[in-house]
Each structure stands twice: as structure tokens, then as C-alpha cells.
User: Fold this.
Amino acid sequence: MAFQFKIFTAAAIAVLPFAGSALPAFSEPVSVIAPQVPSFADVVEAVTPAVVSVKVESQLGAMRQRGYRFDRRLQDEDDFFGEQPFFRNGPGVDDDARPPAPGRNGENRARRFGMNQGSGFFVSEDGYVVTNHHVVENGSKFTVVLNDGTELEATLVGADARTDLAVLKVQQQRKFTYVKFSQEKVRVGEWVVAVGNPFGLGGTVTAGIVSAHNRASGSNRLDDLIQIDAAVNKGHSGGPAFNLKGEVIGVNNQVFSRGGGSFGVAFAVPAASASQVVNDLIANGQVVRGWLGVQIQPVTPEIAQSVGLENPSGAIVTTPQPDSPAAKAGIAAGDIITSVDGQAIGNPRMLARIIAGFRPDSNVRIGIWRNGEASQVDVTVGRLEEPASVPAQGATTPGATGVQPEGLARLGLQLQPAPGGEGVVITGVEPGSIGASSDLRTGDLVVTVNGQPVPDGEAMLRLLQEAGQGDRPSTLIQIRRADQLRFVVIPLERG
Assistant:
């Protein structure tokens, strides 16, 4: 017993310090007291039933003609010739799509069809759905897939290529959950939630912030896109971008990408533009816009200085189209449009959007800067039609050379009269010369100098010398490049 007691006592002694006293004290776990990121759960729960997947059946040939649009161009508002690659995050051709195989009797089998997929959202209780024009383009059958997987047939109400918007109508009598466009201009830095159907994964939610306003793509002067950094991918096209109130602040339509994936630079048609277009499509099946009929480019500081304009703003007319409202009102190449009905024009895209907002046959007053003086002209706005192709002009024989007028050597240009005697073709530009620094290129067709036509190199030299008699440091020459007219500033030589 004594032996056992000693063992028990030893065990008791070993245990007693832990059993009869408090546990040792430890440091507190990490706890951060700071403002927390708001949860998106309530917004997502409320709006998700209004977001749909859009399935578009197209004939294989039509789909192949469209394909993916990897050749879009990002433009700042003053960058007329953008250089950055764009990817329009639209649907694509099924992986197994192949050309139709010949049948046993030598005849082609029935045409194969492919299925495109994009996103959309309800904007009315009775089933109007907004999506992108490029999602439904060339479609022959449209299906809207609800959040619960229900598939409903839809018809195309109308589509507008210029804003990349389209409206479908679900053919079923029921009440749908729908969302509305925000009436407030979204601020840079605000939270944004994108819901859509990337890669066919319906009901996908991503979040980010509004990164910037006033982005443009391609040569479409009506673009005024919102940039967001939410993860937007192929299939998000036509889906909504929401604020934290559950209001649509934009319709997703493009991403910047070099390989098709999300780089966190996505673009959406702003609510203000989208709501107006959607209302027109629902009411009329099309959008009617005003038209002035001018080719324009930005006014750079160099251009403003060369024409005596104090501020480099507005849009300089490279040419008025024949029989256009602008031509009928007397607007000419070289005029700088500075205002429309008293509203100052900051850049060409602003002018295009303002004019497009007028109904055809509206009377507007255009402020212009011409020959160093401000004036105004009254214009009756026309109707904007879809752009037509323009034939190439200013072609010249490869390797041809022309007489180089003495005195043009300082510009570093080789010239040749253009076919038909309308302008001179630049057949060579010396590196490091004034011509090269002025962004003149081989193949450019010089049309005018300081508003005067240039039939040959001698006339170009004479007009430059005449311009040099004034007090301005530079003058404008008008060139045609890639079927587009634009102005280039040339420094003047004093002598």
C-alpha cells in the first residue's frame, strides 16, 4: 500500500498544479477593426432572376463570316487612329462545327447550324430583353434561358449596330422579374457588379469598380463607353453591370484582351445611351438619328495654332459629303466646328453624339471658326444612314517617281502628280525630315494646302511659300490616307 500510495501521491503532485490553478494566459488572436467591403449578396439575390442567357442559332456560313472580333481598336477621344487590340466578348462557333459533307448522291447534306451564346436581361414585366447587337447578328432562332434553366423562345424586336444593342421579346404570357436603367451618371470608383453567362456558365457574378468614362472603340464616333475592372469574358456580352442599388449602369459589350481572357479592362454601353436606344427599338424597331454629313478629326494644339484658334477644341472638317446638310449650309473643308446650338464642342465624338441626338429635319445653329474668325451657320439636320463603303482613291503606280520641285527638299518629300490631276502623291519620305516629323507617309495624297487645291508639286511649293508670308508658324495641308481625309500641320519656313 505504501508503495502504491507513493505512486498515487507522485501522480497527484504532477496533476495538482494544473487541476488546482487557472490556465496559463495566452495573447489575444488578431482582430482588425476597419471599414468592411460591402456585401454584394443582397444585390445579386435581387437581380439574378432578371438576368438571362441568350442562345442564338445561326447558319454555319453566317457565323463563320462574323467570327470573333479581335481587330477592334481602343481610342482615346482625341486619338483618331487607335492602335490597341480589342476583343469584342461575343459568342463563337461550336468547336465541332464543320463545313457540310457531300452526300452519297453527290449532293450536300442539310446545312449545319451552330449555337452562339451571350447574356441579356429583362427590362419589362412582359418580357422585353436587352442584349448586344453582335450577339444576335445573323441569328435565325433566339432562345432565352432563365436563371432556373427554363428555355423560352424569343423574337428579335430590333437591333442597333452603332451602339451594339438589341432587344428581344419573349413569346410567353407571364410576369418576369425585370430591372431598370440607372438615371444617375455613375462615378469613377463606384462598385459595379456584372452578371452574365461567360463561357456558357449562366448566373456568373463578378465585381469591381468603375475605372473610367468616355472610352471609344473603333471608328464609331457614337461610342461613349464605361470602363470597368470586373472580370468580363466571352459570353458576358449583353449582360448588365449593376450598381449597389440593383440598377443597370451599363450593358457589357467589349473587353481589352490579347488572347481572349479577362485582363480586368472591360467596357459597357452606359445606361443613359442604352435606355434611349432600347426605348426607340421597342417603340419603332429602329433608331433614327440626326446627320450632318462631314468627315472630321480632332483639333490638336498645332492645328489650333496654325489657324489662330485660342483653344485646341472642337472638330475640324476634313471634307463635307456631297449633298449633305453641312454642304448645303456652306460648311467647307478646314472649318472648325466649335458649337451646336450654343453648346461647346470639345472633340469629334462629342459632335457626333450631339448631332445624332437631333431628330431629322431639326434646325440647329452650328458655330464655326473660319479664316481666323468665328461665325455661325444654320443647318437642317438630315437622317443618319448606315455607313457605305468608300472606294479607294489616290492610288499610284508602285515605284513611280516624279519631278521634285526645288524648295520642297527641306520637307524631305518625293512627289508625283496623282491620276486625274487631283492632288499629289507622296512617293517617298526622308527619315528625320520635316515631312516625317509631321507624320506624312509614303502613299499619302496631298489634296490641299491652306484650303487651296494642289494640282502638282509646283503648286504645293507656291502655296507653302504664300503661307509663309503670314505671321503664323505653321499651316494645314489636307491629305487622303486609307480612304480617310485628315489634316496635317506643316511648319513654315521664314525667308
